[in-house]
Amino acid sequence: MKTFKAVQAKKEPQVTPLFAGQVTLQRMVEPEHSKHFMIRQVNFAPGARNKFHSHSIDQVLIVTEGKGIVATDKEEVTVVPGDVVFIPAGEKHWHGATKDSTFSHLYVMSPDSKTTQLED
User: Which CATH number is 88's domain given?
Assistant: First the structure.
């Protein structure tokens, strides 16, 4: 068993083509801990988001702070702490902070999942 406080996880800046705006990542449960899933927290500055993308395996988001948006081609939903979002494999989507709020979520996903960026 391993216990820790989420706030102790180092915030790593994410400067990749997938993100627009200031985003950090905190590693919680990594593939060396579990071969079945990983858990990471993503923190978005106001207005920051990721670009349209999909995953090869299902993803779960658990909103932990602020106010965010999760969107597909067909809908856009505002989410707040306590909301849980299930994103099936292959679904084109994006998620990020509203313009006036920070936003953080945990994601739970298989370490075998591949992410495909679908927006430049």
Answer: 2.60.120.10
Q: How do the pLDDT tens digits run along the chain, 120 residues long?
A: 888 888 889 999 999 999 999 999 999 999 888 999 999 999 999 999 999 999 999 999 999 999 999 999 999 999 999 999 999 999 999 999 999 999 999 999 999 999 999 998
pTM: 0.94
Q: What's the domain range around 103? A: 11-112
The pair of structure tokens assigned to 85 is: 């979002």
Taking a C-beta distance cutoff of 8 angstroms, is the pair 47, 114 a contact?
Answer: no
Cβ neighbours of residue 66 under 8 Å, at least 6 residues apart? 44, 80, 81, 97, 98, 101, 102, 103, 104
